[in-house]
Amino acid sequence: MKVQTLKQAEQLLQERHLCDACLGRLFRQEIKEGSNAEKGRFIKKQLHNTEKITSNDCWLCGGLIDEIPHFVDLITKTLKEYEFETFLVGSKIDEDIQEKEQQLWTQLSLEDAEPIKMEINREIGKILEPQLGKTVDIPNPDIMAVIDTVYDIVTLQIISLFIYGRYKKLQRGIPQTKWPCQICFGKGCKRCNYTGKLYEITVEELVAQKSLEHTKGTDESFHGSGREDIDALMLGTGRPFVLEIKNPKKRSINLKDLEKETNLATKNLVEITSLRFSNREEIARIKAAEFRKTYRVTLEAAQPLNKEKLIKVAQTLQGKLIKQLTPTRVAHRRANKVRERLIYNCVIESVEGIIARLVLETESGTYVKEFVSGDDDKTRPNLSELIGIPCKVIELDVIDVKGE
Ligand SMILES: [Zn+2]
Ligand SMILES: [Zn+2]
What we know:
By secondary structure, this protein is an alpha+beta fold. Helix content is 32%, strand content 27%. Helix 2 crosses helix 3 (36-46), helix 4 (68-79) packs across helix 6 and helix 7 (203-215) crosses helix 8.
């Protein structure tokens, strides 16, 4: 140790009572080995300073350092119900202590002194690691425990659990995600029968219910790769989604069991497959992914249809580029602009009088109902103009979402 440092320490100890840890922390750069308390003891020994100063008498921490085992207990109790592999400890420290600390740094011209907060966090982590059999992870902990050292309160920040899957929607009239009641905005009113919801059931809630039970999460968020219309079925291999479970207590859940239980409970409404654990990054990926969609369309025409004519028109649609101005029905929530979309394929399945069924494969984001009706010529070319008879979609199902 530098003589200069020893002199500084000696003078400091004449002015103030400092516990070993608080002294050692100030000069920790000067001594290689040991904890801050050990460093402090070493300095005091060098100075032949035998005065016993407990943490309680310490001018700086006023006993805070000795409370570490108590904080460890509080955090351990709070974490008990939660399953995690990695963790991190944070703390809130009395402002008085932080101000005194600053005062000392200025007095001693210390530029990179360690704040007491860091010592508290690190020391708690060091005790908890072997005790819990878990690892401290600074950039990406599963769970972060913040101890308020003034009020003895532990708050947890828990990383969400993400589950990827694909869903099929087997009944019409179910929206993909929750919508708050448009009258009361979720508070509950007469109109929504005090549910606060616009729709009684949603794909989101049907898919999430068992997941919330298995993980004991507090809330969820559903991220679909696009969405079908409320009155459309979603068939085939299903649509990719990522379900985000917030504040899960359990993480190591059995996804096979979850899938089975969910499908049993949501029978004839929704079916999920291909569950696996996922992450936040995947949400962006499935949201941005441009998956080709295949639809089964049932349309109704204003006059009886001619099957040969319809088949001929369908053939000209292979690889056809269409232009769609934002449809009237979504104009309130989408920018008004022209979108170019490709029709990959169109196959006529059946024609009976004014009803026809066809399978349409389109680029992601195509407004299929408008492609059939023309939407007052906002979509061109459109099927109605190509066959020369006004038509409209009466049933629309997604039968496949390509990609992945
Ligand atoms: Zn102290
Ligand atoms: Zn309401």
